[in-house]
Known about the structure:
Elements: H1 3-8, H2 11-19, H3 25-43, E1 46-49, H4 51-60, E2 71-75, H5 102-109, E3 113-118, H6 152-159, E4 165-170, H7 176-182, E5 185-188, E6 209-214, H8 217-227, H9 245-248, E7 257-260, H10 272-287, E8 291-294, H11 301-327, H12 338-348, H13 352-372, E9 378-382, H14 401-411, H15 416-421, E10 425-428, E11 441-444, H16 450-463
Parallel strand pairs: 2-3, 7-8, 7-9
Antiparallel strand pairs: 1-3, 4-6, 5-6, 5-10, 9-11, 10-11
Amino acid sequence: MTIDEYQSYDATDLAGFVRNGEVTPKELLALAIDRLETTNPLLNAVTDILYERACNDIEAGLPDGPFRGVPFLLKDQLDVAGVPTRRACRLLEEEVPEVDSEYVSRIRGAGMVMFGKTNMPELGLNVTTEPEMHGPTRSPWNGAHSPGGSSGGSAAAVAAGICPAASATDGGGSIRIPASCCGLFGMKPSRGRVSFGPDRGEGWGGLTSHGLVSRSVRDSAALLDVLSGPALGAPYALAKPGEPIAIAATRKPGKLKIALVSNPPSQTAVDDECLNAVNDVVRLLKNLGHEIEECSLPVNGAELREASGLIIRTKIAESIEQILARRRRVLREGDLEPTTTLIYEAGRQVSGTQYSESIESIHRIGRQMAEFMKGFDAILSPTLAEPPIRLGVLRELIMDPPALFARMRSYSPFCNVYNASGQPAMSVPLYWGENNLPIGVQFAAALGQEAKLFQLAAQLEMARPWQQRYKWLRIGSTA
């Protein structure tokens, strides 16, 4: 298999070639490493290369799972036994887990070959990937622009053809934002769909979901089947669907009633290119027979912002306090980036009553959205309020946290409502704007209805295939 052939196949294809004996896992790993060595100096997407460990896994015998032999990258937020989980934070440089996370165990059980970890902003606290620890990750479409965050390293690597899919997490848009910026498919699963075990029950008070980014809809559906299912003692648990999501995704969605939401709960202005992307998709949806109704979400934007922000800074403070307690030391200068330090200090000031009230707020938003979804099969909106921003736009505000947070909210005002409600939401790459930059559109469905979204995404993928776009990449270009 040539490197061009390798990049043209998705994970489902590659797994089929391994099963048929047309290629070996070791050959696929060599191709992945070759592509990584060619592109990573330009992208800075992969921070840890686990080549020797991957070779040892292959030599020891891979599980006979549905993706046996397919190369896979992990966001550096997930634990691999014996490998540091740094989360782009100097305070965590010595944090080496003793056991795999449940996510990693299930990916390993599927037979995938994990050969590296990807870049992310410190502790996942940004919508771009520009950490002090590792430096910025660049968009494969235009190196002057951001690949999004916080799963920006994973998205850049997949778009660049290093591997067909990679892990991603989403506490406020961190799967969908980089999927939009990098021209990928990205699904944030429902709360409780994918376990946080074995050492955690939830992420950010239930705001966070674990998932992935991929080039094809069918890969994301089949990998969600791999990842789905509660672990022992999980505080949120959705039972596995009656049939595999990957099988349900092959059926046509039928005529759907879709709510068109062009204005976010925050009433932030939306760039014309992002509105053009949504309007273009509306025309496509109507041609496919779906019904579109323009409306607004029944959510108080200020309540959403304040509750989710308080929960996040409280959980960040909690995690840092736990690390310091394990190390038996105090926080030192240089342990955290300036913005993270301020978030930590603010989180330490939150009272139990304030935190409890914020949890009640996101639960209330979940009930409001569940009631709203009684009238619709899906919601359509822009994924972001602007095309992919240039690198440095947010970094230059690092010493002015209020301005930084306001700028982040104005860039991504559509995503976090679904973290609060727990609903599944996806970014679909159906539109490219100026300078050949991708602009994703977002769809959401009722809690537990990932299969419905996958059916719609597969229909859209067939109507307007985006895989051919990857051939136009000129990695390293800043034109």
